[in-house]
């Protein structure tokens, strides 16, 4: 599995190639799936380019993407989009259109309540375990651990020189992770070394403009599709062209 992370917290300052509107996100998602992505992670944005958990923002983004691609679509529930844990929980409970899955950062206050609310609504939970936090220890003690869809092992070390070692340490901290599938990924200059490690270990991974704006050689990435194509090569699998089509 290779997930494409379409935009992340980046705004217009991330460059014109970063998709922000529902229509731009749908176009980018379709291109990325055609390039070989099998799952989508997106940060729905307000017209001003801010991450939002509002149902009025979430619904049109999900509907636009689903009209173009036949793969699962997930969203963030990051605390930066709604800092108040109670308000964040209320937002999740107010969603009128549900994603297939949502990432929950286990080191954030209120994470387990948000995860439980998502599960109650039938939304898969990606347990985001960040390096450099107590997320792995919290997750190991969580009664919800065996019920998550998968674990996102998120290497926040942006250095190409040290990111692989940080990734290995994070995986060791995670241990068996309740037997749940693990998706390993990095960010910035650490994105490509961590993706290659995921390939060697046979783990799911992700790539996209949320995680990096550049290709392995330092060239600016012009699209999420270009990152997916290169990601499959770096992972060790030949890209396969997919026909764009409606969601099934």
Automatic annotation (TrEMBL):
Pfam families: BKACE. It comes from the Bacteria. This is 3-keto-5-aminohexanoate cleavage protein.
